[in-house]
Amino acid sequence: MSNQRPAAAADSTTALRMRGAAVEVGGEVLWRDVDLSVEAGQFVAILGANGAGKSTLVKAVLGLVQLASGEVEVLGSPAGQANRDIGYLPQRRTFDSSVRVRGVDVVRLGLDGDRWGFTLPWGKNAKRAREIVRQVIDVVGASSYAQRPIGQISGGEQQRLLIAQALVRKPKMLILDEPLDSLDLPNQSAIAALIKRVCQEQGVTVLMVAHDVNPILPYLDQVVYLAGGAVMCGTPAEVITSEKLTTLYKSPVEVLRASDGRLVVVGEPEAPAHHGDRHAHVHGSHA
Q1: Same domain, 127 and 155
Q2: Which pLDDT does position 244 carry in this prediction?
């Protein structure tokens, strides 16, 4: 049974607070002793090998997983109570080239896609809805192709429109589940820069689940590493070091910085393994 207590009201700048948080799955502790404080407008990466509990941490933030101990406070309320103020982008969807739905309509689904029936192109709210959709498409830089079928645009362009869909209700927090997966390196960098700009200009707090920290490293305010039931949180400079990762993974890990500034983790295959180019052989159009 959860020992989560009603959290004291956080100050208005705190978007996420976890204190002594732990989750059990099948009687086994998945992770424990999570202490994390995220300020409004920060960009945070959740990192770790497959099975480390990244998705479960996201579910705990959304109130979909009960804590075994500790507490989680999101946007000033217990987890699960402020989900309407959270935009969520699940693991990357793919659109077949035959899909004729326009990008602008995909974005519009984020505004009213949870309602029954068809959205009418007239009425007192239709003009306002079109303006909201137009504005968010401008924010992500997708205006030039938003009228095209989503199956006919590049992966990076699709991802911008999906981010717009998650932003269209003006959330205070955005949760992205591996949004860079399957994109080529230029598109990864472009989407990472876009997300940071959204943080800065819109004041949106972003939690991003990721495997490779390199495309997002220059933009991050904090990282959350999960391994073997343990969690380590802090700024990239504090956490991504040989000493800290050796402690986390309980085996020798060396963090090297290449001449181009990229990080390479040596000595632990699953330590989000190798912070290098996971997509060197993935080709795609540039956004």
Answers
A1: yes
A2: 92
User: 18 lies in a domain?
Assistant: yes
Rounded distance, CA 286 to CA 21, Å? 40
- Which CATH number does the domain housing residue 199 bear? 3.40.50.300
Rounded Cα distance between 92 and 148, Å, is 20
pLDDT of residue 267: 67
What's the pLDDT band for 272 if we cut at 50, 70, 90?
very low
> Do 16 and 37 belong together in one domain?
yes
Is 270 domain-assigned?
no
Q: In 3D, which of 282, 248, 267 has the Cα closest to residue 47?
A: 248
Element (H, E) at 56: helix 54-61
Task: Print the domain residue range for 72.
Answer: 1-82+172-235
Do 102 and 150 form a contact (C-beta atoms < 8 A)?
A: yes
Q: How many domains does the chain divide into?
A: 2
* Least confident interval from 100-114, 145-159, 188-202: 100-114
Sign of CA dihedral 141, 145, 148, 153: negative
pLDDT band for position 124 (50/70/90)?
low
Q: Which of 173, 167, 177, 188 shows the shortest CA–CA distance to 287?
A: 188
